[in-house]
Amino acid sequence: MLLRTFKELRRYPSAIVGLSIIAVLVGLSIYAVISIPYAQAVEMWRGGGTAGYRLPKIAAPAWTNWFRDQKLPETIFVSSIEHPEYKTRQVKDPGEQIDIAFTFDFSADAFPQDITIYFSPKYIEAQPFVSVTLITPDGRELGIYNGLIQAGQVLFASQDSKLQRRYGDFPQNALLADPTSEPPAPLKGTYQVLISAITFEEGSDLDAELILYGQVHGIAGTDNLRRDISVALLWGIPIALIFGLLAAVGTTFTTMIIAATGVWFGGWVDELIQRITEVNIVLPFLPILIMVGTFYSRSIWAVLGVTILLNIFGGGIKTFRANFLQIREAPYIEAAQSYGAGNGRIIFRYLVPRLIPLIIPQLVNLIPGYVFLEATLAVLGLGDPILPTWGKVINDAYGNGALYLGYYYWIVEPAVLLMITGLAFSMLGFSLDRIFNPRLRGQ
User: Fold this and answer.
1) Averaged over 236-261, what is the pLDDT?
2) Residue 187 and residue 137 in contact, taking contact as beta carbons nearer than 8 Å
3) Contact 166/174 with Cβ under 8 angstroms?
């Protein structure tokens, strides 16, 4: 039957497109789980990870430069910790002189967000004295810092009061500006940052990391917490597919089994199922989920369980019941009873399998609905607080005024993925409906 179904699907271009998109989504899900393990993804999304400080704040995707006349700068990162060859030592009594030389090329048409130096000194009591100088491509030497350095000290050019008094309100721009340009524009070329430290204790040391935070970053950009949005976009794919698939399968098959049980046993069993269904149908589904997320748990598994529980006694039971009432009177059911088949065997081997081909299109069409449901709850602030999902990205973007401040990528990227996922399953579901539904076959 599967082989025949795939042969039939080849007749429908929409099914081929839908299957192709779903295959790509599944492939990306596998890639996300392998390349970014769950614990690492959660750490990166909740706290930025161990290297989260290296990312710029609210930076557009790097590919947006393809459509700009003026190219925005990407983040530049150099470190003496990762590259010890940048560091030299000279013995001096009682300590040492440590020189660190960073070299970087700057070719963008705009200034970076900030110029930052992270110092990592090692000492017991006497702090090292550090001097930082920037050498521009045209040979100018610009002083950045002179003074003692303590553990964990960070120099932000945009926030340093001494640099502001010396170079103006935006020292990160003035340090890279072409002195001959008006209005100010970056001076392109090769820069050097020289860090010279004098230590006063034996065994003291100094390392440094230089970061020029760019205005564009990566394939998806960053948010206000310096998080790489591509992590949430990638991990949002398996989360969305798993949630949608489990909710659709759990709801559909459980509903079908309950309806078959009620039809077969009849009497008070059928009446009880119908009364529960009628009561459940009038209950407001979304407000109940909001109450569960507000007062009990926002875990995606709790939301999934409540979703299945509220939907198994939905309108689908009425539809399945009508079909099972016809199947119950079929001759092969009477034959099964005559040779002594038990109630369970009749329900699971003779009633339920007859409707499985008919529910496959319905099952596929239900998946995007549940994907959008999970995203809706996240947008309302009731998503899982741990997992990175598409809905959480949209919620964070909306909460930080992305649409009003022009950060459209922040909302458009997850929204497009949601629409593509819904479109893929809908195209496949409609094609399957034409194959399995006799009334639509051939149209």
Assistant:
1) 93
2) yes
3) no
